[in-house]
């Protein structure tokens, strides 16, 4: 459908309007930041640096003042669709599209899908769409410099170049990929250079050499190019990805506020990055220096490096006391944590798990998560707090035939009309006002009031007010799994959960 639009390069004229379309890549599990980041609620949806915003929200907020910026397209796992929708609404942003991947296939298929979709959106307009590819887990300190770099890159992109942003290295990192440019880059200017080659994570010797040679920069994983330009290169160097993505979009379906990608065609795409599939092969790649205090928050040590610290070099967050402790990161989500006589350690406490590690081994947390998965530990993937499109619930305590939950329902939200085959429930309101419906009987209840839902009763819970609703749910029955549910009505279009 879009092929005819990009078979030949467009020439800008006085009637053409240039628009920068942010493509925010919000997939990934962030397993190196376990136990805070987990598959059910990964790092891009967390507030890691005591900000007003989550990582995803900050990704858009830092570009909203760029020249000719448009509403974003967000690409995420379908499991996180309601989290993305909720966090975008919190910052009053309505994405052009929230695209749901059935599984992660790296950046080449995701960017191909985004480019095809953008051309489809603007096919009957005089708009020239320029794609700004952003990862949702980066931290940038100097927003003005970042925006300036983007604005100064647009003309290069309009000339059919593919822009990749290279970050001047500040230390000899062995955890980042590098870009070698054909000429030395002045980190205080925004002049471009042809890309000579890409280097995967180097050893320490080469990393020390790269930091001295001004031809080398960190690969930020951020890109800028016209939709037509990148599709031409993808079609040339990765035709199967291009073909499968076209098929995928043709068969994709709109689901509420989301675009659900067709599973078979998308899974047929090679699992490969845009760097390998296109940028290492094309002659159109330009690197532009990005000296703006960039960091990829990949593990606990990298988070420690960019966090605020006390006089002893400690990053402390939550209910934490540290004595005779230095150069450590200690976070508490729930309980009081006390550290005495520690150095270069990571301590992270959540409601259901605690991580204690030497800081230099923080990269190995990913291996621990794999081990936890192998052994069947639920804590590897899921938090105690489970987020739903209507709010969240927290499992407080459970036994063989009973369970206690704290349920939070957002203002104006409601759970589905449902029933359970194996359990009864008791709802006790502790804050706010609840509207209950049990076998067609509606009732309004407030704090210290309760209702009983017998096994098999058709029921629904709603928050009709503008304030949060908090209640305690006591479940009792022979089976308490989340899949014991039959839905009759659900405004979120869910079949489960």
User: What composes the largest sheet?
Assistant: 6 strands, antiparallel
CATH architectural type of the largest domain? Alpha-Beta Complex
Distance between the termini: 36 Å
Strand order of the largest sheet: 20-21-22-29-24-27
Q: Provide the helix percentage.
A: 10-25%
Morphology call: globular
Return the average pLDDT rounded to an integer.
Answer: 93
- Please write the CATH class name of the largest domain: Alpha Beta
> Rg from C-alpha positions?
25 Å
Q: Helical region count? A: 12
CATH topology of the largest domain: Spore Coat Polysaccharide Biosynthesis Protein SpsA, Chain A
- Total count of strands: 30
Number of domains: 3
What features would you describe in this structure?
The protein is built from twelve helices and 30 strands. By secondary structure, the protein is an alpha/beta fold. The chain has three domains: 288 residues, Spore Coat Polysaccharide Biosynthesis Protein SpsA, Chain A (Alpha-Beta Complex); 75 residues, no CATH class; 105 residues, Jelly Rolls (Sandwich), CATH 2.60.120.10. Strands 20-21-22-29-24-27 form a six-stranded antiparallel beta sheet, with no helix packed on it. It has a five-stranded mixed barrel with strand order 6-9-7-8-12. Strand 21 and strand 22 form a beta hairpin. Helix 4 packs across helix 7, helix 4 packs across helix 8 and helix 7 crosses helix 8. The chain starts with a helix and ends in an 8-residue tail after the last strand. 39% of the residues are buried.
């Amino acid at each position: 459908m879009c092929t005819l639009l990009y078979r030949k390069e467009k020439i800008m004229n006085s009637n053409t309007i240039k628009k920068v379309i942010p493509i925010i890549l919000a997939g990934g599990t962030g397993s190196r930041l376990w136990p805070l980041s987990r598959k059910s609620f990964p790092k891009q949806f967390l507030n890691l640096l005591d900000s007003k915003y989550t990582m995803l929200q900050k990704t858009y907020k830092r570009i909203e003042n760029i020249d000719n910026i448009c509403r974003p397209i967000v690409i995420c796992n379908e499991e996180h669709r309601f989290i993305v929708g909720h966090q975008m609404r919190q910052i009053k942003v309505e994405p052009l599209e929230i695209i749901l991947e059935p599984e992660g296939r790296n950046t080449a298929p995701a960017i191909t899908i985004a480019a095809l979709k953008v051309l489809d959106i603007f096919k009957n307009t005089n708009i020239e769409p320029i794609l700004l590819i952003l990862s949702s887990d980066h931290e940038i300190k100097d927003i003005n410099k970042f925006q300036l770099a983007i604005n100064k890159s647009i003309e290069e992109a309009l000339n059919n170049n593919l822009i990749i942003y290279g970050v001047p290295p500040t230390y000899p990192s062995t955890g980042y990929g590098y870009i070698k440019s054909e000429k030395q880059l002045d980190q205080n200017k925004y002049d471009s250079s042809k890309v000579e080659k890409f280097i995967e994570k180097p050893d320490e010797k080469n990393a020390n050499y790269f930091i001295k040679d001004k031809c080398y920069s960190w690969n930020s994983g951020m890109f800028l190019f016209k939709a037509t330009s990148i599709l031409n290169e993808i079609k040339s160097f990765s035709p199967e990805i291009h073909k499968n993505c076209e098929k995928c979009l043709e068969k994709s379906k709109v689901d509420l506020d989301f675009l659900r990608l067709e599973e078979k065609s998308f899974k047929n795409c090679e699992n490969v990055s845009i760097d390998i599939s296109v940028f290492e092969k094309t002659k159109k790649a330009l690197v532009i220096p990005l000296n703006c205090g960039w960091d990829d928050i990949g593990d606990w040590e990298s988070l420690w490096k960019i966090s605020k610290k006390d006089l002893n070099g400690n990053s402390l967050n939550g209910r934490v006391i540290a004595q005779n402790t230095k150069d450590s990161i200690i976070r508490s989500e729930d309980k009081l944590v006390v550290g005495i006589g520690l150095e270069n350690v990571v301590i992270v406490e959540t409601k259901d798990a605690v991580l204690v590690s030497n800081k230099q081994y923080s990269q190995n947390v990913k291996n621990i998560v794999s081990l936890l998965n192998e052994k069947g530990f639920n804590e590897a993937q899921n938090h105690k707090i489970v987020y739903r499109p209507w709010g969240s619930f927290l499992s407080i305590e459970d036994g063989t035939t009973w369970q206690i939950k704290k349920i939070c329902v957002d203002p104006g939200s409601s759970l589905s009309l449902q029933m359970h085959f194996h359990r009864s429930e008791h709802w006790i309101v502790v804050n706010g006002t609840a509207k209950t419906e049990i076998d067609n009987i509606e009732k309004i209840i407030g704090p210290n009031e309760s209702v009983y839902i017998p096994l098999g009763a058709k029921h629904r819970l709603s928050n009709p007010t503008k304030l949060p609703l908090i209640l305690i749910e006591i479940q009792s029955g022979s089976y308490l799994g989340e899949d014991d549910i039959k839905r009759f009505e659900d405004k979120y279009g869910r079949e489960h959960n």
